[in-house]
Amino acid sequence: SPVPYRIREDKNNTVVDFNIKNVRPGESLEINLSHAALLFGAEYFSRLDVSGLEQYENPEIVKTFTKPEKGIESDDPRIVNLAKDIIGDEKNPFWKAYKIYDWITKTIRYNYDEVPSGGAIATLESRVGICGDFAELYIALARAAGVPSRYVALYVPLEKVEGHASVEIYVPKYGWIPVDPTWGDTTGGID
Q1: Dihedrals φ, ψ of 166, to 5°?
Q2: What would the pLDDT profile of 77-130 be if each residue is shown by its tens digit?
Q3: What is the phi/psi pair of residue 163, to 5°?
Q4: CB crowding 45-78: b at 16 or more within 10 Å, else e
């Protein structure tokens, strides 16, 4: 029989809680959960009209999604100064985000065997990481540049459960849009 569950929202994430009873040590229970993801390529973003985007209409989103967090050290002087260097005089949040994406994909190297200890600073210092490291550094730089951003994790059951981390940025007029700084490095710039 199906396992009872409930779906709830928790800090901008959708969480599924399973009510599992009567599983004894040594027994196993298989739960299959399906999730659909809509992926966007670079050609999608080339169709957005981002001219004149400078003001955020929702100050609560800016306040919430530009704060530092564990592993996303957006207030660290190294992150703040680098974000300023990357974006220069740019005011448009979309182009700020693009410049940060470009910097990360040209600077950070993907290597599953040399994963740093975690967090944006560790990735910045080592210049190497995996998807979660790329995402944390991207978010820290975007937040330091005033672009609201959040971490997105997706888990896909293949032969074993595979996960991937990416980012969403908030752009006035469009809302949350996906950005995956890992793909620029691991696919040679093909989104």
Answers
A1: -145, -160
A2: 999 999 999 999 999 999 999 999 999 999 998 887 777 668 999 999 999 998
A3: -120, 160
A4: beeeebeebeebeeeebbeebbebbebbbbebee
- What lies within 8 Å, CB to CB, of 57 at 6+ separation is 172
- Nearest residue to 135 via CA among 96, 104, 112, 95: 104
Specify the 3-state DSSP secondary structure of 152.
Answer: strand
The torsion defined by the Cα of 16, 17, 19 and 22, in degrees rounded to 10, comes to 90
Element spanning 94, H or E: helix 93-107
CB 121 within 8 A of CB 78: yes
d(CA 121, CA 140) in angstroms, rounded, equals: 9
